[in-house]
């Protein structure tokens, strides 16, 4: 923003070639242009017979940002505009605009041009060569621009305007952006005098010639702000620019309402909404702002990321089927599973001999396949002990030909530490991404800070419950899209709605397999949301839901989600001895070598039936034994290794574990079951008989349920009611017997059981004595309490008799332990 002094003044009577559209200053004239500074003084000096005209709309408004930052070292900005603009186009050169705006007949001498880039105009200082009034000059300029309008190069829909400067313009380079609102302050003309406050009518008459005014606001009467002021809001910013540059410093006379000594205007731009006001409002209203920001972020996240996440889930559902259908990938997997990855020979269809297992469970497989083609809106539950082949039966057999399936392993989710890890694992299993689980931790800190500041949480962080709901919801949307993807316009049932189509075509629905259901069910948040969501997709016919669980009490949590439905269940127990024998033999046949190797194996298989009988029909144990036999061990040695390993695990987890046992059972209760099951003839105990034992009087059913979940025991049912208590695995009976054979261990644990029983009886006697003491403190002995007192005395006598018995047994065990070397 530099004033330009012309070495050769440009007048309205300049030669004709200056008025052509292609005029350019000669090179020697450009070299003589020098820049004078009105910035230092802040004003343009005006002498006798001189005046100032403000020409508006020469440059684009708000160019002040060019004078900041990286371009702050560039001073002659008009030089840049001359190079960028085309001087051949009308209104492209500031000097050309000034020369066209002033009419030739005025015979004005242009002495100085002061450009105002941030306001889009320029001040033109002129000299009078004849006695012409300012009113005549103003009318002549307006008439000239009306007859020959000048269109600015940056906006052909506007036009250049000009008017006389009636005040004293303030030439400044402050960072003040022009706006359509002006603040007019009323100042005295000299020290010691007072300024008058102009009325709205007076202000309107003075400022209306520069453009339409939308509103005039006077300063409130009770305001103590000095000096007094008024706010004028114009229709367009360029009107306010013209008014400010023409009227700043204008002195209102007494006749016009300016008071005895007159009133001087000080005009500045007033922003309609100040950034400081917005900042102050945000700081002063956190209860509204923080939740609003949280809601905005959540909305943007849903709009932008939810379609992406649904797409990735849909891609994962489809990719599993595509990988199974791809023959190249299948061949790579078969070759990678062999000992020699680069072998091109044909492999057996089932090298592990699992075909024998599936032959025995073919009825269950066919039943499950039939259920997946029906429209019943209920759950399918496959339950059985760990190692019974539930996952393999469902995924590798029943769903082998099914196109789309989704598998959610609850064990992976529950094993994760912390909500963030649980969310990440749940998202990874269904392909939900991008997932910003780490943001949950940061958001929690923000919520904590917000709670301390406003008293409530802002809602930035979301609970595990809410995050899982989002993941499952997107998965349901993706599964529905996959199920409806096969619809064609030429189908006969194209008239059906989406829900009707899914109900009519159950074979089109994906299969949702929820594995390890109720694993570590202490944290029920995951299972509650999972069952609730599974019930929703089942009822909406979006997918078939299959639960795989080892917990026999699955009906209770599932009934909460679907209370009016009967579940379809398949119970997988241990396979029969014949199936187990075929499984081992086929496994060995698949790994067989030459004739000599086969002959050696037949010799080592002596006693295989008795070993299989000891192991029972648990697939994992049979598979481990087959591998040990294939490695060169005898069946007896392999079974002995399994028994020793199982006994060590039981001893470590339930008896001598470094970690404290579950609060729902004690090591004494676990050892009592181990000992009694090992000594029973058929390896079973009556359920009710166990509950009547002294160690299981208090909360016995919860104790047995906890031990069953820990897989130490299993509870067999008869017509839906618990009937028998058995070892958790068939091999556990042999492991129990191996533990009981250790007399030192048995005597020590029996001594602990006796101590526990003595402690229980002492607590009972204490309770009876307290009641007797209360009855004895009554003032008169009532005959109605005689039977009660006699009953308490008999209880005390019976408990004391038990204590005497237990102490005798305990003394005998202590002597045995002391005699041991």
Protein topology:
Elements: E1 3-11, H1 27-32, E2 34-35, E3 50-56, H2 77-84, H3 94-101, E4 108-116, E5 121-128, H4 134-147, E6 161-164, E7 181-188, H5 200-207, E8 213-218, E9 229-234, H6 237-247, E10 251-252, E11 263-269, H7 275-284, H8 286-325, H9 327-337, H10 355-360, H11 362-371, E12 380-383, H12 390-398, E13 405-409, H13 410-415, H14 419-430, H15 438-454, H16 464-484, H17 498-504, E14 511-517, H18 525-539, E15 544-549, H19 555-561, E16 568-571, H20 577-590, H21 595-604, H22 608-615, H23 619-630, H24 635-655, H25 667-679, E17 685-686, H26 687-691, H27 700-709, E18 713-718, E19 721-727, H28 730-740, H29 743-776, H30 786-819
Parallel strand pairs: 12-15, 12-16, 13-14, 14-15
Antiparallel strand pairs: 1-2, 1-4, 3-5, 3-6, 4-5, 7-9, 7-11, 8-9, 10-11, 17-19, 18-19
Rg for CA atoms: 48 Å
Q: How far apart lie the N and C ends?
A: 107 Å
Percent helix, as a range, is 40-55%
Strand order of the largest sheet: 2-1-4-5-3-6
Query: For the record, what CATH class of the largest domain applies?
Result: Alpha Beta
Count of structural domains: 5
Q: In the CATH hierarchy, what is the superfamily of the largest domain?
A: P-loop containing nucleotide triphosphate hydrolases
The chain-level mean pLDDT equals 79
- Main pleated sheet: 6 strands, antiparallel
Shape annotation = elongated
CATH architecture field of the largest domain:
3-Layer(aba) Sandwich
Strand content: 5-15%
């Amino acid at each position: 923003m530099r004033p330009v002094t012309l070495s050769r003044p440009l007048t309205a009577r300049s030669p004709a070639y200056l008025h052509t559209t292609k005029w350019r200053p000669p090179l020697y004239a450009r070299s003589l242009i020098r820049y004078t500074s009105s910035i230092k003084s802040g004003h343009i000096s005006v002498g006798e017979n001189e005046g100032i005209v403000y020409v508006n709309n020469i440059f684009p408004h708000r160019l002040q940002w060019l004078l900041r930052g990286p371009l702050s070292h560039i001073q002659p900005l008009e030089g840049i505009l001359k190079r960028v603009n085309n001087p051949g186009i009308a209104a492209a050169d500031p000097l050309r605009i000034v020369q066209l705006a002033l009419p030739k007949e005025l015979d004005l001498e242009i002495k100085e041009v002061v450009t105002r880039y941030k306001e889009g105009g320029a001040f033109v200082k002129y000299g009078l060569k004849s006695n012409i009034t300012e009113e005549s000059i103003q009318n002549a300029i307006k008439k000239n621009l009306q007859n020959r309008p000048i269109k600015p190069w940056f906006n052909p829909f506007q036009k250049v305007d000009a008017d006389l400067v009636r005040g004293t313009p303030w030439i400044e380079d402050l960072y003040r952006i022009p706006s359509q609102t002006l603040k007019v302050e009323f100042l005295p003309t000299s020290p010691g005098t007072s300024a008058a406050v102009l009325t709205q009518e007076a202000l309107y008459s003075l400022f209306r010639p520069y453009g339409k005014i939308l509103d005039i606001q006077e300063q409130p009467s009770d305001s103590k702000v000095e000096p007094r002021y008024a706010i004028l809001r114009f229709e367009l910013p360029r009107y306010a620019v013209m008014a400010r540059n023409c009227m700043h410093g204008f002195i209102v006379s007494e006749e016009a309402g300016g008071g005895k000594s007159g009133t001087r205007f000080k005009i500045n731009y007033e922003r309609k909404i100040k950034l400081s006001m917005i900042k102050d409002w945000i700081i002063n209203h956190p209860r509204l702002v923080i939740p609003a920001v949280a809601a905005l972020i959540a909305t943007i996240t849903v709009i932008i990321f939810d379609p992406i996440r649904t797409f990735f889930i849909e891609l994962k559902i489809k990719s599993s089927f595509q990988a199974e259908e791809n023959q190249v990938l299948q061949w790579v997997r078969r070759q990678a599973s062999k000992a020699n990855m680069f072998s091109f020979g044909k492999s057996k269809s089932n090298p592990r001999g699992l075909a024998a297992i599936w032959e025995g469970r073919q009825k269950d497989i066919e039943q499950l396949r039939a259920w997946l083609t029906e429209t019943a809106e209920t759950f399918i539950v496959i339950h059985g002990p760990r190692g019974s082949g539930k996952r393999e039966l469902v995924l590798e057999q029943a769903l082998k030909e099914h196109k789309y399936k989704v598998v959610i392993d609850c064990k992976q989710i529950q094993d994760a530490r912390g909500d963030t890890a649980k969310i990440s694992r749940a998202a990874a299993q269904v392909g939900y991404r991008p997932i910003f689980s780490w943001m949950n931790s940061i958001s929690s800190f923000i919520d904590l800070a917000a709670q301390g500041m406003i008293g409530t949480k802002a809602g930035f962080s979301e609970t595990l419950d809410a995050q899982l709901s989002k993941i499952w919801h997107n998965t349901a949307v993706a599964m529905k899209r996959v199920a409806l993807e096969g619809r064609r316009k030429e189908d006969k049932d194209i008239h059906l709605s989406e829900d009707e189509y899914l109900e009519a075509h159950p074979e089109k629905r994906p299969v949702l397999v929820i594995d390890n259901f109720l694993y570590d069910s202490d944290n029920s948040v995951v299972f509650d949301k999972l069952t609730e969501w599974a019930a929703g997709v089942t009822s909406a016919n979006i997918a078939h839901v299959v639960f795989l669980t080892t917990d026999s009490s699955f009906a209770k949590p599932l009934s909460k989600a679907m209370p009016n439905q009967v579940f379809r269940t398949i119970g997988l127990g241990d396979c029969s001895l014949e199936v187990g024998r075929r499984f081992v033999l086929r496994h060995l046949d698949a790994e067989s070598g030459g004739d000599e190797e086969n002959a050696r194996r037949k010799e080592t298989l002596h006693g295989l039936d008795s070993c299989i009988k000891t192991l029972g029909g648990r697939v994992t144990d049979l598979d481990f034994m087959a591998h040990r036999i294939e490695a060169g061990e005898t069946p007896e040695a392999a079974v002995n290794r399994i028994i020793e390993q199982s006994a060590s695990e039981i001893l470590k987890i339930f008896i001598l574990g470094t970690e404290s046992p579950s609060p729902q059972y004690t090591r004494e209760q676990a050892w009592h079951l181990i000992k009694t099951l090992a000594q029973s003839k058929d390896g079973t105990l009556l359920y009710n008989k166990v509950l009547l034992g002294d160690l299981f009087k208090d909360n016995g059913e919860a104790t047995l349920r906890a031990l069953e979940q820990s897989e130490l025991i299993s509870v067999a049912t008869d017509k839906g009611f618990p009937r028998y208590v058995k070892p958790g695995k068939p091999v556990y009976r042999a492991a129990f017997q191996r533990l009981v054979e250790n007399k030192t261990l048995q005597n020590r644990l029996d001594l602990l059981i006796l101590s526990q029983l003595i402690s229980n009886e002492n607590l009972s006697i204490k309770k009876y004595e307290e009641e007797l003491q209360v009855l004895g403190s009554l003032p008169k002995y009532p005959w109605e309490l005689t039977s009660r007192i006699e009953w308490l005395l008999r209880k005390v006598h019976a408990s004391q008799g038990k204590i005497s018995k237990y102490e005798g047994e305990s003394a005998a065990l202590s002597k045995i332990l002391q005699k041991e070397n």
